[in-house]
Amino acid sequence: MNFNAKKKRIDDLIKLINYHNKRYYLEDKPEISDAEFDLILRELLELEEENPTLKDPNSPSQKVGGFISKNFQKFKHLEKMYSLENISNKNELEKFIIKIQKTIKDPSFILEPKFDGSSVSITYKDGIYNSAATRGDGSTGEDITANIKTIKNVPLKLLDNAPQGLIEIRGEVIFPLKEFASLNKKLEKSNQAFSNPRNAAAGSLRQLDTKITANRPLIFIPWGLGMSMNLNIETELELILKFKEWGFLILGEFIKADNINFIQEHFEAVLYKRAELDYEIDGLVIKLNNFNDQKILGFTSKYPKWAAAIKFPSMVAKTKVKQITYQIGRTGMITPVAELHEVTLGGVKVRRASLHNFDQIKLLNLNTNDEVLIERAGDVIPKVLKVSKKINSTKFKLPTKCPSCKSLLSKEGSYLFCKETNCIEVLKRKVAYLASKKCFNIVGLGESIVDNLVSSNIIKDIPDVFSLKKNKLLELEGFGEKLAENLILEINNKKTIPLAKFISSLGIRHVGENISNLLAKNFVNIDKISSAKENQIESVDGIGTEIAKSVVEYFSVNKNKEEIKTMLDSGIKISKDSLIEGDKFLGKSICITGKLKNYSREELSNIIVKQQGKVVSSVSKNTDILISGENSGSKLEKAKSLNIKVMNVNQFLNL
């Protein structure tokens, strides 16, 4: 690339980054993921480093990211609110530490979570809440005093030994994942859903109506100071203890570290635990622990020289689409899948990516042979973010027939369904789910054997599972006498099943474990469920119109009713375990966390449900009890901060 080409590329990147910064900070409507943005910014930084004479003083690399909305009053920070420099690998971490060691002898560091939310600054005067603002451009933000005041865990008066004078407490406003999913479900109906929890937090803070902010389950986590008067502390660790004393919530671990190997080990441990958290983090923050050492190093125009963000490895990569194939689910839903040229993401080899539904293909303008950007977040199936280049694309055509039985597909919203009751692929998925741990738990009846049995016409419908004959199994390749006998014995031993699991095994659309439990709890037996009216089902707390309609539709089909009758006639018994045994936990929301002794989560959940309690996956102000095992982590911390009753398994069982 010659000089002029490099200058043009730098100018183009600056314009592109400024555009996306505006979409991100000002409008809360990002068009690209964090990983994509980091790729663009990194390209700019590398070009500027290689060509210092081309560095523009107004480049985004020289400024704190952020914009100020015209909808709010401007607010001048007492002290500048800086961004953090990113560290993306071990070499960059080594450089960061070595650079500090040149000035500071035997530096001690603190490691803390990098919360993925919206950064704000809260000012207290003589210990009383005074004002609050967004980061903005670092010097000036937006006045969100009224909105921050509505966040339930923000103290309006600092507790023990509150400092006199002015103090700016910097921190992150985050949106818990469980509540984010719930909010987005409501907002999807009006096409106002947020793209991620961070944008939900930022959007909630920028509401002109404070009632909307107050109704959002926002959490404020302090991580630093701006202006501080009359505060006699020397280290970051002391500051964290002060935050706790003053009444702030502290989440995650704050660890002292003095060598790169320990830092790397802790980083990898947090990366491993990341998926268990009820809030998003996108890395660790490393800081010098001692405030005097921080003062010696000072700041650049954009970053503190004594702190940086160690970012989690990029989960974004480019590859090509080989073809678009289809998966058929147990409800007949057809899901498109992008078959990819192999690429490695976060150490995992990826050959396929979910496309979710057919509207997504249209939105992406995706075709075979396209070069695409894919993302893998946590342990979920990778997804296609965008088409990065068109290369001899073959235009995708929406299928009209089921790829298995060739019957006409039915379009419902963004989804396509095979409604043919005799579709072999749908039957395979139904039988595999019925045999899984979530239903009958038939050990030995895995997907490959199910495929073989259905393809060989030995299983022609669901009830056939419970009337399998040894001589038929022996006809299949790979089945010997012992294997056939063991499978039939296993099936016969699993013919007694709780009502909730029986309901789940039927393959009713929208009805999984949770809805099955609600139906079992409220209707007691299968006859009452099958004869229930739509309004009766919808009256159950936690069941909406769409689910109620789906249940009624299922039981209106004669084939489905006949299959249930045949299953019961073949010896299936719905156990008394499916019935409610009492009301000890009626109206109680109970969360289970950590490694449990003597009991599995499923066993404890069954005990709670039988006593009319509700099992929840995250801790919130509405949680009544947290059952805590070993290594409980963030849920235990949050429960303590919210004064929620915490007990071990034995204490819980003795209630």
What does it look like?
With 655 residues, the chain is of the alpha+beta class. The protein has 5 domains: 3-62, Helix Hairpins, CATH 1.10.287.610; 74-311, DNA ligase/mRNA capping enzyme (D-amino Acid Aminotransferase, Chain A, domain 1, 2-Layer Sandwich), CATH 3.30.470; 316-418, OB fold (Dihydrolipoamide Acetyltransferase, E2P) (Beta Barrel); 424-575, Orthogonal Bundle (DNA polymerase, domain 1), CATH 1.10.150; 589-653, 3-Layer(aba) Sandwich (Rossmann fold), CATH 3.40.50.10190. The chain is built from 24 helices and 24 strands. It starts with a helix and ends with a helix. The mean pLDDT is 86.
In short:
The protein is an alpha+beta fold.
What is the name of the CATH superfamily of the largest domain? DNA ligase/mRNA capping enzyme
Query: Which fold name is given in CATH as the topology of the largest domain?
Result: D-amino Acid Aminotransferase, Chain A, domain 1
| Overall number of structural domains | 5
Low-confidence stretches: none
**Shape verdict:** globular
Radius of gyration: 29 Å
Terminal CA distance: 73 Å
* CATH class category name of the largest domain: Alpha Beta
Number of strands: 24
Number of helices: 24
Give the helix proportion (percent range).
25-40%
Based on secondary structure, the structural category is alpha+beta
Beta-strand level of the residues, as a percent range?
15-25%
> What is the CATH architecture term of the largest domain?
2-Layer Sandwich
Sheet with most strands: 7 strands, antiparallel
Set out the fold topology.
Blueprint: H1 3-26, H2 34-50, E1 74-76, E2 85-87, H3 90-101, E3 109-115, E4 118-125, E5 128-134, E6 140-142, H4 145-148, E7 166-174, H5 177-188, H6 197-205, H7 210-214, E8 219-228, H8 236-246, E9 255-257, H9 260-273, E10 281-288, H10 291-297, E11 307-311, E12 316-328, E13 333-345, E14 348-354, H11 358-364, E15 371-375, E16 383-389, E17 409-412, E18 415-418, H12 424-435, H13 447-455, H14 470-473, H15 481-493, E19 496-497, H16 499-505, H17 513-523, H18 526-531, H19 534-538, H20 545-556, H21 558-569, E20 573-574, E21 589-593, H22 601-610, E22 614-616, E23 625-628, H23 634-641, E24 645-647, H24 649-653
Parallel strand pairs: 2-11, 19-20, 21-22, 21-23, 23-24
Antiparallel strand pairs: 1-6, 3-9, 3-10, 4-5, 4-7, 7-8, 10-11, 12-13, 12-15, 13-14, 13-18, 15-16, 17-18
Helix pairs in contact: 1-2, 12-13, 16-17
